[in-house]
Design goal:
The protein has 450 residues and is of the alpha+beta class. The chain is built from 14 helices and 11 strands. The protein has helices spanning 25-38, 51-58, 60-83, 135-148, 199-203, 247-253, 259-294, 300-320, 325-332, 336-363, 370-384, 388-398, 401-420, 434-437, and strands spanning 2-9, 12-19, 87-97, 104-112, 125-128, 151-154, 164-173, 176-189, 211-217, 227-241, 422-425. The strands form 3 sheets. Strands 6, 7, 8, 9 and 10 form a 5-stranded antiparallel beta sheet that branches.
């Protein structure tokens, strides 16, 4: 095999590769063996079909094509090693010419890791908003607690916003029952808009044992996009009763004896969350500043793959909640082109950050221990709701274990970077990460770029 490398840009190279026909022999034999296992020829046992019979049945061209598809990745890998190319993403292959018995000639364009010169992180200073905690934020947390510990009392009056009602629903389209459109004894908070559009508006003013109908547009099922007539019957109306805001409430709703102690704890929690948000903001600003200062280029092929990955993840997430991309676009009042442009911009910056952190990890000779890698696998498996071994096996089968390893390594490089930069708030106070370290603050977030 002969190969040459041509630099097309700081992030892309073209390999020109020539493979003598004799070197294709192992791939050719393998192709014959695999095809022999796949076809039935009367008079021959499966897997024992002679090459000339396979040529007659499926064609010599088909076998040659199989052999070439097998040989190309191996020869690209050999050329990459020979020229010490740091590859990224999938290669784009173009077969220049190939005839039976002659040399295979092809080119492969690959994205490569660019050479990046990273400024000294110790020279980076970022400014974040100073901590401000308003009493209304503590009041809001208290309100949520009161709602959680509220009791419901049946009332003999029409439903109002904020009441809980028990109701029956039955949906029809042109008099035909909607599959799954009938439900009994549903508990619903009036005004929460958690059920069908239009329901909350007709519930206000309805008392127990009263009924009405309304029209709503269905978003899923056989009648998606059509108007349905929905009959609703209220069974009971219950009023939400909140506890008095006194020490007795504090003892019921928390581990504290007094409202004052509960409010102090809530203040501390809000403060801690805002401090973590400061670190996230500092992290994003530092990375943005370093990417700009190092003038990190973004390899087009890798960005394209990342956009495809992000879009598929978005579609999958929408499907899980029973929605489509079209419905999401309508709700957001955006076109698919606008979403694609937003994804491309985010993916572009995400890829640049990955390249920056990889360069820092190389410079600092960051290592990932088996324990650190295992901890990340366990963490991701828990989020995915599967057993760690099963999750790891899936990663290996899909070839994604290396990507997770890279994420952990970048996470460690990012944590080290955050230790070196200077973070100040808008009032000039220097912010230390020490107070947050015990709480696992966000500087160790491996997935920030996604």
């Amino acid at each position: 095999m002969k190969s040459t490398v041509e630099t097309l840009s700081p992030t892309r190279v073209r390999l020109a590769i020539e493979v003598p026909f004799a070197e294709l022999e192992p791939s050719l034999k393998k192709a014959y063996r695999e095809i022999a296992q796949q076809i039935n020829v009367p008079g021959f046992r499966r897997g024992k079909i002679p090459a000339q019979v396979i040529d007659q049945r499926v064609g010599r061209g088909t076998v040659l094509n199989e052999a070439v598809q097998e040989a190309i990745p191996e020869n690209i890998l050999a050329a990459v090693r020979e020229h010490d190319v740091k590859t990224l993403g999938r290669p784009e292959v173009d077969i220049a010419e190939f005839k039976d018995g002659e040399t295979l000639k092809f080119t492969a364009e690959l994205d490569v890791r660019p050479e990046i010169i990273v400024p000294d992180p110790a020279t980076v200073e970022v400014t974040v908003d100073a901590l401000q905690i308003d009493e209304s934020e503590i009041d809001e947390q208290i309100k949520l607690l009161r709602d959680r510990f509220a009791t419901l009392k049946t009332v003999e009056r029409a439903a109002q916003e904020g009441d809980f009602v028990q109701l029956d629903l039955a949906a029809t389209v042109n008099g035909e029952e909607v599959p799954g459109g009938t439900a009994s004894n549903i508990s619903h908070e009036v005004g929460s808009k958690q059920l069908l559009p239009g329901l909350d508006e007709v519930l206000v003013g309805l008392a127990a044992d009263e009924s009405t109908t309304f029209v709503t547009q269905l978003v899923a099922g056989d009648f998606a996009g059509q108007d349905a007539d929905v009959a609703v019957t209220v069974k009971t109306v219950k009023e939400k009763q909140l506890s008095e805001l006194d020490d007795e409430f504090a003892q019921m709703a928390s581990e504290f004896d007094t409202i004052a102690e509960l409010r102090a704890d809530l203040r501390e929690r809000i403060t801690k969350n805002k401090q973590i948000e400061q670190v996230y903001a500092a992290r994003d600003k530092a990375l943005e500043e370093l990417v700009a200062a190092a003038d990190v280029p973004a390899p087009e092929g890798v960005v394209k793959e990342e956009v495809e990955h992000r879009k598929q993840a978005m579609v999958d997430q929408l499907e899980r909640i029973g929605a489509s991309l079209e419905e999401y676009l309508a709700a957001e009042e955006k076109t698919e082109e606008q979403i694609d442009a937003e994804l491309a911009e985010a993916a572009n910056q995400g890829v640049k950050i990955q390249l920056l952190l990889d360069t820092i990890a190389d410079a600092d000779e960051v290592q990932v221990s088996d324990d650190e890698f295992g901890h990340e696998i366990v963490h991701r498996a828990q989020r995915a709701g599967v057993a760690p071994q099963q999750y790891y096996d899936q990663l290996v089968r899909s070839g994604a274990a290396g990507a997770v390893f890279g994420d952990v390594r970048r996470g460690k490089a990012l944590a080290a970077l955050m230790e070196k930069i200077t973070i100040k708030d808008t009032e000039g106070n220097e912010i230390s990460l020490d107070a947050l370290r015990a709480d696992g603050a966000g500087e160790h977030d491996h997935n920030h770029e996604h």
